[in-house]
Amino acid sequence: MLKNIFNLTRIFLISSSSRKNGKKRKVLSGLLYVFLLIYLAGSLGFLSYEIINGLISFSQENAFVGYILMAIISIVMFTTVVACINTYYFSKENAVILSLPLTPFEILSAKINTMMAYEYLEELIFGLVPLCVFGVMTHQPFLFYLFLIPVLLVLPILPLLIVSVIVMVLMAFFKGMRNKNMVQVITMTVSILFSLTVSMLGSNVSSQEDAMNMMNQANGLVELFRHTFPTMPMAISALLEQNFLALLGLILISVAVYLLVCVLCQKLFFKGVLQSLSSSSGVSNKKIDEKKAFRSKGLAFSYVMKEIRTYLRNPTFFVQMILPTLLLPIFIVIVFYVSFRSSGTDPLPVLVPIYQDQGFAGIVYTVLLIAFMFNCFYSFLPLIAVSKDGHDAYLMKYIPVPFHTQLIYKTVPDILACLFSWAVTATLIAVLFRVPIGLILMSFPVYLGFSLLHGSLILIDARHPKLQWTSEIRLVKNNLRTLWGIAYTLLNMGIVALLGVLLNLPPILMTLILTAFYLAIAVCIYLLIRKKDIALSNGFE
Q1: How confident is the model at residue 540 (pLDDT cuts 50, 70, 90)?
Q2: Structural domain includes residue 290
Q3: Which of 7, 100, 103, 365 is most buried (most C-beta within 10 Å)?
């Protein structure tokens, strides 16, 4: 049984990440992605250094461990919601796997292991690097690093299994629903609502007085995180106190829950898989109205609407690419607000005086811009904008529309998604945190320029598009080009932090500098792709 699970997991991982590039291109791509990983690790390491320095000044440096562990759990839950529906139920391999002499236990275990491999890749950057920086800066003993690896290995198991069980239960009840797109949307929405509920019920601090007492104690702030998730007390004790019994308990509980889910949910999972094989794509078969179909509304409008419909109608693109961009700002802002309130502190009496103090205007504006930009962390539309068309993308070279003009049309859905994300985040921040409307509106031209350049990441995909793929999930998942989107977001957050924190520029000056900077680069990129129109299209060969 163990051999079958191991081999099946390996097959799933190889199948989802297989590429057919030439040897030379593989080497160059590998070197480029190694550089990107080093850049991301360096950026997060520097950010961690600054945060830990700030916490040390308040004698609350241990709270950083709680922040990182809670961030890992939140990221695992969010990415599991986004990815597990396709990995478990709408994978192209399911029809073949079910015909093999494998038990539901073995298939479910391999699916969970595949999801765990995805989460470990995220932990490598977002967990290992910051915690190693913490260990060096606070002079942690050798046992801290020795315990760090097993803690990071088992910490994602419980949040991943919680979301997985929710998805399995929901899928088992979709017997009469044959619309694949609708199934994924409902399942993802309910799962995210549950994750928000877990965050809201997390903290055990009952009053503002309790929170103040914790902050007045050396490293007392870390206690706020001990009861935010069932395994958090053991994880924090294992790292900060080098408690072997806590580490052993964390491992045993995680492994026991893993086995329990695989045993008890195998039939539930199998039932959902059988029903998913009969689900339709959700595309309507109604008759076409010829008058409406051939009514011209302009080339640009028609092309852009074609792109938008492709993302909305395809369940994989919609769930993996559109929904995260739209729901992440809601998830982040509400979790932050609820965490603030659950600690016994009303944010308004604390924050309103800060808004009114002109000396803090630059800091508040900087935090606001960084919050808006962070919402694009999972926005990867321009990095598959050409590849998503598959072999049909070759038509771009032959239709009577300039190639660079088509690229611009293809960036519009990403720009609209980014701007919608800004509008949702701005509304929530204005309502929940009472941030001055002037500061929020002042950020719009900056974020507009940021969105335009974010759309220009399409050049990475257009240069060497991946036009030969058998399923959308293979194109979307394990696509290392997404590192470019993460690197771009981190770079811009760093630029904003440099202007607002280190140079302490006023908001109006930051707006003028950043807006002019983004627009100048956008114009240069437009002139470049217009000049290199033919050279870009040759990347399809």
Answers
A1: low
A2: no
A3: 365
Q: How far is CA 137 from CA 43, 64, 67, 140, 462, in A?
A: 16, 12, 16, 8, 43
Phi, psi for residue 507 in degrees, rounded to 5 = -55, -45
Residues 273 and 306 grouped into a single domain: no
User: Under a CB-based contact definition with an 8 Å cutoff, are residues 227 and 233 in contact?
Assistant: yes
Compute, in degrees rounded to 10, the torsion defined by CA atoms 468, 474, 475, 480: -110
Q: Residue 292 burial (CB < 10 Å; 0-12/13-18/19+)?
A: exposed
Q: Report helix, strand or coil for 57.
A: helix
Q: What is the pTM of this model?
A: 0.67
Of the two residues 186 and 166, the one the predictor is more confident about is 166
In a domain, 349, yes or no: yes
Q: Which two tokens stand for residue 105?
A: 């236990």
429 and 353, same domain (yes or no): yes
Contact 135, 148 (CB under 8 A): yes
Do residues 263 and 369 both lie within one domain?
Answer: no
Asked if residue 453 and residue 348 are part of one domain, the reply reads: yes
Give the three-state DSSP class for 173: coil
Looking at the 3D structure of the chain, how many domains does it have? 2
In whole angstroms, what is the distance from residue 271 CA to residue 97 CA? Answer: 14
Residue range of the domain that includes 527: 301-541
Q: Determine, yes or no, domain membership for 164.
A: yes
Q: Say how far apart CA 234 and CA 158 lie, in whole Å.
A: 13
Longest dimension (CA), the chain: 75
In whole angstroms, what is the distance from residue 144 CA to residue 241 CA? 8
- Torsion sign (Cα): 49, 360, 450, 323: positive
CA distance linking residue 261 with residue 234, whole number of Å:
21
Backbone region of residue 478 per phi and psi (left: phi > 0; alpha: psi in -120 to 50; beta: other values): left
